[in-house]
Amino acid sequence: MPSFSQKMKIAFLGLDNAGKTSILTALKRKFDFMDQISKLKPTLSVDRNSFSFNFLNTQVMQFDFGGQLKYRNEYLEHKDRYLSETDLIFYIIDVQDPLRFKETLGYFNEIAEYYKSEGTKMTFIIFLHKIDPSLRTDPGKDDIYREMIGEVMVLKKIMNDWLPVHDLYFFESSIYDIVSLIRAFSFGMQRIFTKREILDDFLTSVGRDFHTISMMLFDENGISLSEYFREHLTEEEREKCRELFLNALKRIADEVSNTYEFSDWISYSKRVSGVIQGFQVGYLWFYCIAIIDETSEEEAVDLLDKFEAYKKDLSDILEGFIAETRIPI
């Protein structure tokens, strides 16, 4: 087992039944998690053991704070004990329960006020949770969806009063859309990954050299470390590219392989080819996916050969990040 010289504390907060533990379970498993989620019970007090992971040789401790009133009162009565030394907060709001918006705003304000009093500018990633895909796509739910979005806009406006005291970022999410969870969680991790610009510049340069539609780099936890997308790609097409990564990652896991080539659609009119490759730096695994316009098998092989030439440079960059923790790899 690796040892760590750096640790990071992440807190998942929100009211009871907001979906905090379900989100953590989905992020941990990524595939075939609905059966496990259906068996979850309310979190009692704080679960700090179930969801820890290694991020670039840093031990990330995820604290799942139970949202029942008696536990919330305990946290707020002893804020230093529970909330101190936190690097990042994911705050979960059940947007299908507007009758509790006032309650969740009150809880959020108490937490935000604590960090303000401590002189800490906290980063809050706010999950506007349970905006399920069916609400957007089912014509019979148009009125429900419009009403929900209207209430969410009011909620965001009130919460944004905390700008610029704290940094707030909002994401629509659903347990039925794993990409929405990974995107929000990855965005949060990227905010505290201080040297990600180096990876962004590298992936942008390589992505343009390869004439790719997209290049994405993920760690072994499925956290997006960097993404490059061709200009003018729609948000729907970008989301489809992220879905292709998850599908390819599952195929790699099922086939016990480090490379998987694929062809798929990212829109009704745009078919693409791509390759995902897993590679190891020290004891850590990383996955890079390159997506290009549909091409011949020979050109796909050429893409893989080109990536091999750049992989050494990418590995060196990642090794530098890991080595900064002063742990031999």
Task: Explain this structure.
By secondary structure, the protein is α/β, with parallel strands linked by helices. The chain has two domains: 7-191, Rossmann fold (3-Layer(aba) Sandwich); 196-323, 2-Layer Sandwich (Beta-Lactamase). 44% of the residues lie in helices and 26% in strands. The protein is built from eleven helices and twelve strands. The strands form two sheets. Strands 1, 2, 3, 4, 5, 6 and 7 form a seven-stranded mixed beta sheet that branches. Strands 9-8-12-11-10 form a five-stranded antiparallel beta sheet, sandwiched between helices. β11 (270-281) and β12 (284-293) form a beta hairpin. The longest helix has 27 residues, at 297-323. The chain starts with 6 loop residues before the first strand and ends in a 6-residue tail after the last helix. The mean pLDDT is 87.
